[in-house]
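Lecture 7 notes: from sequence to structure.

We start with a single chain of 339 residues. Read the sequence below before looking at the structure.
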Amino acid sequence: MRLAASTPAEHRGLSRDGVRMLVATTDGLVHARFSDLARFLAPGDLLIVNTSATLAAAVDAARSDGRPVTVHFSTPLEDGTWLVELRESDAGRARVTDAAPGDRIELPAGALTLAYKYPDPAADRLWAAAVSITDADDVDVPAYLARHGRPVRYSYVPDQWPLSAYQSVFSREPGSAEMPSAGRPFSNDLVIDLVTSGVIIAPIRLHAGVASLEAGEKPLPERFSVPQPTAELVNLTRAARRRVVAVGTTVTRALESAIGADGTARASEGWTSLILGADHPARVVSGLITGWHDPEASHLALLEAVAGQALVKAAYAEADRAGYLGHEFGDSCLLLPAL
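Now the structure, written as tokens:
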């Protein structure tokens, strides 16, 4: 996207659901507002939302030689270490590339020690790190972040915003390093409008790690859960030939990870390494709500796995022409390929 939203919609004089929404169907492209969403969905359609809440995952720290650094806490691993990303503390917030195993990073009331590069020694972005905390009796990183952290942000967002700006009406369990932003434009009133119009809403949970992928980077494994009632609703909706609409790429990844060999959804939880694309198209998701992001390969591949290359390409071209705003505080897109 050529234009990035640098402030939340509320700061720009809009309601959350007042952002623009491009509706892309095989019949054409329609410009609307997110508050119009119920117009484009039918009674019996199933909307799947992510209930993961955003952590205050950025912490000011210092390297052993005193240089300031920002630590982005991404994801806890099964061995108790955390995946972290190191960023420069200046306005550019570039990635730190000269760290080494054994480096100690001093945190407010704690420290972390870099263990190994993740997912392999050739990686230069994420580290598995041991975390120690001195202002609590146990190593409860989410609680520590609530005391000392702030939301992750990048150079296109020059000002700091409160954590509440990075939550959606569906946010329940803290765990995402970056906001599952497709759900941000929903308001309580819009949810009521959808339900009263006959649209069904069901939850999944996927805790998103540091998700601002750069060129050539593939999505890393993430923790997810698809509960049994949601899986059953997916199967019933498909049997009724209605749409299963994912609110965001996180929902798409989680839901498609819960599809068995017979094509039916089932209750699932754990880690997903699923990467959707031309060789692994979506099997149950038949509609997608998404924000506008830089068109890097893995993000576009996931959109195309749901909606097809032609529809996604047409939507991005029109959004660029019409000046839609990108990133987490930006405008939205509803992709509705043919059923």
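The mean pLDDT is 94. Keep this in mind for problem set 3.
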